């Protein structure tokens, strides 16, 4: 039972990789050829979100958290976000600059997490999260589904709603990055002031 318990959360995360490929294929079919169902897109998007929501919670509840599981989760998230954004850019639903921003934000997150971990060795988690950054990353996760649904709907001003979401998230992400980089600077400053004493 113990070995099975360890496999359940990672299997859920790996299923997200498969669903990501299916989701991207459905986006391509739907927006390029007008084929495919909005219902299928919605189901896949919901399943991807639920798998992300529950894999970590399940690992913690079963007591089987691991560095590998945390890294697999971040990889699955990144693959979903980058590939679905890329597909939505290819079918002209999202602007290309936003994917560049997401990639820069992810790089900043990894670099600042590694930097902060040098000073906080008590945490076993390989990444360091901040409140605004969590909201921004959750929004990164939701944007592909929201963009698909709004672009397909006949809602007046749906492109404006998508742009408002993108620019709001951009501002939140920029603020989060500023705070994380400032925090790294303060840690460095504190360290050097202790060394001089």
Largest sheet: none
Helicity range: over 70%
- What gyration radius follows from the Cα positions, in whole Å? 19 Å
Query: Which regions have little confidence, pLDDT < 50, spanning 5+ residues?
Result: none
Here the CATH topology equals Four Helix Bundle (Hemerythrin (Met), subunit A)
Give the beta-strand count.
0
Helix count, DSSP H or I runs of 4 or more residues: 6
What's the number of domains? 1
Tertiary shape:
flat
List the secondary-structure elements in sequence, H or E.
HHHHHH
Specify the CATH homologous superfamily. CDP-alcohol phosphotransferase transmembrane (TM) domain
Helix/strand-derived class? mainly alpha
Notes on the protein architecture:
It is a single chain. This protein is mostly helical. The chain has one domain (2-196): Four Helix Bundle (Hemerythrin (Met), subunit A). Helices cover 84% and strands 0% of the residues. It contains 6 helices and no strands. Helix 1 (2-33) packs antiparallel against helix 2 (38-62) and helix 3 (67-90) packs antiparallel against helix 4 (96-119). The longest helix has 39 residues, at 158-196. The model has no long low-confidence stretch (mean pLDDT 90).
Annotation keywords:
single chain, 197 residues, mainly alpha, Four Helix Bundle (Hemerythrin (Met), subunit A), flat
Short description:
The chain contains six helices and no strands.
Helices and strands in order:
Blueprint: H1 2-33, H2 38-62, H3 67-90, H4 96-119, H5 131-152, H6 158-196
Protein name: CDP-alcohol phosphatidyltransferase
Family: Belongs to the CDP-alcohol phosphatidyltransferase class-I family.
InterPro entries: CDP-OH_P_trans, CDP-OH_PTrfase_TM_dom, CDP_ALCOHOL_P_TRANSF_CS
